[in-house]
Amino acid sequence: MSFETTYPTHWRRPPRMLRDRRWRLVVQGAVLVYLVLAMGSLDIEWSRVVEGLARGQRFVEGFLQPDFISRWSDIRQGLIESLTMTLTATVVGGLISVPIGIGGARNLVPAPVYGICRTIIAVSRSLQEIIIAIFLVAMFGFGPLAGFMTLSFASIGFIAKLLAEDIEECDVHQIEAVRATGASWWQVLHYAIQPQVMPRLIGLSMYRLDINFRESAVIGIVGAGGIGATLNTAIDRYEYDSAGAILLIVIVIVMLSEYGSSYLRRFLQ
Is the per-residue pLDDT at 27 higher than 70? Predict the structure, then answer.
């Protein structure tokens, strides 16, 4: 028995939401009026814009001449904290995400399990990292512990949701073929699901590693440790050359992670 995929031979325009041209003009006019009113409510002070452009010019000049030496001890300590938080949070969050992502796939688990796992995913995705960091800093105090817990909690919702969607989109024919052999649920998961989603899971984990490292620079501003505190201090002291050095380090690490992710995906495929 063969399965053939058919593709459309010509392009078809999607149906319009509003078929009446008058209603389309009304909606477009309302959007335009809203944008004009919204721009008018910003209360832009052009003198502050000019001052901001001058400060921005000094920042760009410092970025083009980064200083890695004068504050290297602080940069190194913040960098070590950020890398530690990032790696541990990605690993812990990824390990917790796998069973939750499997439970969030409708085609693998019963409805009660699906509902519980989807609720966990929704709760994890409903709060921004900076909000979670503020609560955890208030609970556990300043330091990388709050940052680690923040990034782990955020990683669960991100990886588990995308993993669940990938499992639901797996090739049904391959799953049914393994089930037809009398395989158990664990064998179906191992031989039919895992080969299809593993490269994607590795890619998601590496992508989350990038996000966690960048977020560590943000949550550090509220006291959750990492390179963000050092960056905030440098900017407050108008040490734009040191701030430029920190940003360059962040960019280089993210690029290395991206190249490593591409290599791992090619290796696994």
Answer: yes
- Domain extent at residue 135: 72-268
More confident residue, 62 or 73: 73
Q: Is 174 a domain residue? A: yes
Q: What is the CATH number of the domain that holds 168?
A: 1.10.3720.10
Query: What global pTM score does this model have?
Result: 0.74
**Is residue 189 included in any domain, yes or no?**
yes
What are phi and psi for residue 183, nearest 5 degrees?
-70, 150
Total number of domains constituting the chain: 1
